[in-house]
Amino acid sequence: MKRLQLGTISLVLLLIILTKSSTTNAVEDDSVKNEESDKEEQNHVPNSTSSYGIEIVGEMEEDEWEMVQKRGNQFVVNEKPFYINGFNTYWLMVFAVDESTRGKVTEVFQQASSVGMTVCRTWAFNDAQWRALQKSPSVYDEDVFKALDFVVSEAKKYKIRLILSLANNWEAYGGKAQYVKWGKDAGLNVSSDDDFFSHPTLRTYYKNHVKTVLNRVNTLTNITYKEDPTIFAWELMNEPRCTSDPTGDKLQDWIQEMAFHVKKIDAKHLVEIGVEGFYGPSTPHRTQFNPNSYATQVGTDFIRNHQVLGVDFASAHIYADSWISQQISESHLEFITSWMKSHIEDAEKHLGMPIIFAEFGVSSKDPGYNATYRDNLITSVYKTILNSTKKGGSGGGTLLWQVFPEGTDNMDDGYAIVLSKSPSTSAVVSLQSSRLALFNSMCSSKFQWSCKKKKVIYDPHDEF
Ligand SMILES: *[C@@H]1O[C@H](CO)[C@@H](O)[C@H](O)[C@H]1NC(C)=O
Ligand SMILES: *[C@@H]1O[C@H](CO)[C@@H](O)[C@H](O)[C@H]1NC(C)=O
Ligand SMILES: *[C@@H]1O[C@H](CO)[C@@H](O)[C@H](O)[C@H]1NC(C)=O
Ligand SMILES: *[C@@H]1O[C@H](CO)[C@@H](O)[C@H](O)[C@H]1NC(C)=O
Ligand SMILES: *[C@@H]1O[C@H](CO)[C@@H](O)[C@H](O)[C@H]1NC(C)=O
């Protein structure tokens, strides 16, 4: 009870801080920074203990480390909503294999948590490539599995939950092409990479991989992955596409079988598919929101895919530079807003589930790119999600693609954000974290007010 009162007092303080700050643009917003901002400037990464009151919220979060669940269109933990500011770092397992690079895993968790991020999406696959987890079907490298164990146990230390993706559509780290190659090696009559989705033997390979990962007992914590609250959700596949069947039937059938398969082994964790979110044949009236006409041809179908039993929440990615034009343009921001709004609306009205924008970012290699543009893009995404969050809506969160520690440039595809070198971006991220942390605690059933009452607190003209 004592805690609760302390928390309530802190919360009121926090409200004052944030209400003041929320009327100005996040990028230029320095009003929330306190006297310690000079010190932060030196460190580059603002400390959670010194900025934006995250530490105050932290005091209220002394509950046990419990599974994330879904209630209606919200994520919840310990009866509190769990709106997410998170990030991607795909290579964590691979770096954790070797002692010389393992420290980078810790660094990225440390830096991300210092700006209040709570979820990381990363690969729990690496098929027959450098430092492979799965060397051949159902044959695993124990050292690499131990590296994944490390990633999971290290994430918990920094109070970061993981979305673990179980396969790749693309060839990096193996992907569906590698499964097809294994099939060929085993004498199967397969040719197209999309046989990954349809060939019964390849489906079995994938299902075995899923089973192995979910039943893994972490050698560092002794916790079975399927029992571990550090894992936020399972992702069936990174960006599945099945261009060989634009009707979407082939992929739909695969999703049905695999979502059920995951749930059968692990009923506790949430499941998402990993699609990019393109509208498909089942919703011709929504295809206007796609970035281009090709998007309807890739065999995915946002609404239909997410109606599958066992799929708990929706995902979409946001890449104006890859989907519309590589040349940076202000019009990209308009696309991004409309893309997000349409998906949030669908998640709310048609799917009745939360949605996570599981990858978004901009490449520094794009013509016309500059750091200000990147901050504006991130701010725009954050604002749009907050518009849903503050109403208790389906906009469950966003995951930046991607956050790297220093000294990992060789892994960078152009999108990497090194927080310690990007103070302005760190400030944007921190502000979003503290705002979401505020909503998460404010809407707690443990407090006297509910989400709805917060309208009284916020200035109605406040557009964030
Ligand atoms: C920031 O964090 C670092 C490492 O935890 C610590 O050494 C430093 O004193 C902190 N700075 C402030 C301003 O709290
Ligand atoms: C291999 O599959 C193709 C297409 O699915 C089919 O046309 C062909 O007859 C098959 N070949 C054999 C040897 O079964
Ligand atoms: C895990 O289990 C083993 C064997 O039961 C035990 O020796 C070890 O101390 C346990 N480790 C942890 C971290 O609980
Ligand atoms: C940054 O890029 C945007 C978009 O290309 C452009 O409009 C803006 O003028 C640039 N700003 C600077 C400071 O270069
Ligand atoms: C926020 O939501 C309101 C309706 O609830 C809508 O009119 C407005 O355009 C939204 N703003 C953004 C930036 O999404």
TrEMBL record:
GO MF annotation list: mannan endo-1,4-beta-mannosidase activity
Residue numbers spanned by region Disordered: 27-49
Glycoside hydrolase family domain boundaries: 66-401
SUPFAM superfamilies, per the entry: (Trans)glycosidases (SSF51445)
Catalytic activity: Random hydrolysis of (1->4)-beta-D-mannosidic linkages in mannans, galactomannans and glucomannans
Cited Pfam families: GH5_mannosidase
Signal peptide: 1-26
EC number: 3.2.1.78
Composition skew (Basic and acidic residues), residue ranges: 30-43
UniProt keyword terms in alphabetical order: Glycosidase, Hydrolase, Secreted, Signal
GO BP, sorted A to Z: polysaccharide catabolic process
InterPro entries: GH, Glyco_hydro_5, MAN-like
Presence of keyword Metal-binding: no
One Gene Ontology term, aspect cellular component: extracellular region
Subcellular location: Secreted
Family named by the database record: Belongs to the glycosyl hydrolase 5 (cellulase A) family.
Protein name according to UniProt: mannan endo-1,4-beta-mannosidase
Gene of this entry: LOC107485332
